[in-house]
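Batch manifest, entry 17 of 40.
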Amino acid sequence: MIRICLLTLVFLFSLSLGVGAQETPGEEENITNTPSATTEDLKEQIIEIQNQGKFGIRHFIPCSKIQAIGVYTELTEPKFKQEETAYFYIEPENFFTRKSEGKYEIWISEDILILSERGETLMEKLGVVETHYNSASPILDVYFNNHVEFKGVPAGKYIFKVILYDKIKNTSASEVLPFEVLEVTPPQKQE
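Output type: structure tokens
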């Protein structure tokens, strides 16, 4: 049976480096072209763009190692030995940030499924990650580090399906990734 290890959600807190610049009422300008724009202004603009964008999955990558957001070792092929642990790097895009009373709120959950090559559900973990944060600083990027152990899993072709839910935006996004579990040949006994 495929066992899913504890998923790790790591998020990046951005540092606030200044006070927001004032904009004249009715004046629309691109903050990035304003010489007095602060890092805080730019973060607010990023949040606005993300909130208006379509929620999705930016990256869904099989890896041999994941260290931090955007720092991973991608596999050339999604193939894993039976005794190996597989790592899947997942990075959502355009998740909603609700601003209220000086706080920034995000709320994302994740379901994972392992399917047979024909699409039959072999394993299903609903709500495996439920992350709901209220932060003093905006959270601009998030990633999920999924670990799957294949000990005792028959060799063959499978499909990893991930579904992310943006609970504030009330929407979801899903992706599938075919992968293969390779048979481990026991070492030959020498006589």
